[in-house]
């Protein structure tokens, strides 16, 4: 039995008030709140156990290294990766995708080579490929979504041509909540000999992920959306792809030997982790993922489906609310505007006065916004600690917005 009251009790921030109202935190798509177990791990990591990791022979270094490297296997279990050696730590999805762009794509792409993207991509899965477009003459091929916001996997597969070197696609849209059939895309791309990178920043928070079942070559996640600390993240990279990659950054830890004239690399995944890492943040991410696994990823997904369905049902009564994306299997993410010309920032401000935190703007998805024909939206994104009562509070606040701006 999923006890949302018990879950909420583990998040200290949820007991506070905003503008004299109980906090309703619906900005989870940007960053999630942290349970006490993660906060405790961060405090302990700095107050009682802190030291640099790897190669230190003293007690504190051994403790930090054990906890840090232990996170690698937690991520492996969380994604059902074959080996923890296929897990590379980083500061989040943005760094992970850039690592693939610089370390894998750049050395093997020539002018005219293509990368296939969906129009729903976050800027983190667009801008690194624009770097290759500007610097190496790589072409970006875009695949649009349909009127409901769904992405046809076959349309992505059909976009793959003889010059395509990579498909990079989100698993769940951070704007529309659309869940993409990345398994079908990977199967079709594999038949054409093209690797697939999946941005799992949103999906991994809301549903179980199995990279072996999906069949992707790269899968990126970010810790701060997964109820862990900022500055933490990881990317799954197939061993075969790791063997094709050059290091993204140079420094300590990622080397085997350095002389005046030569340098040799450490074995993966260390080859791709230069310098002193975000030790405590990474440990905190591991604690967060362990906590989610204990709670049950299927239980989390089922709870969020209930929230999604409640929101959809309540929104049906608001004929002045313009929802973006009507995909039937979407996650509990809703982007909207209100008829009457109210700007998303104004709506967000009114909601904040009622203690409700939402995101307003383009959500780092400008190409999608252009495709949708809108400049900005409000986004309410639900998480594992939100309740149906909070859905109702959102609707009540939106009704007030309509009265004010109609």
Automatic annotation (TrEMBL):
The protein's name: Cysteine desulfurase
GO biological process, one term: cysteine metabolic process
PROSITE patterns for the chain: AA_TRANSFER_CLASS_5
Listed cofactors: pyridoxal 5'-phosphate
Species for this entry: Limimaricola pyoseonensis
GO MF entry, a single one: pyridoxal phosphate binding
Annotated Gene3D superfamilies: Aspartate Aminotransferase, domain 1, Type I PLP-dependent aspartate aminotransferase-like (Major domain)
EC number annotated for this UniProt entry: 2.8.1.7
Annotated Aminotransferase class V domain residues: 24-394
Broad class of enzyme this protein falls into: transferase
Superkingdom classification of source: Bacteria
Organism classification: Bacteria, Pseudomonadati, Pseudomonadota, Alphaproteobacteria, Rhodobacterales
Keyword hit for Manganese: no
Database matches in NCBIfam families: sufS
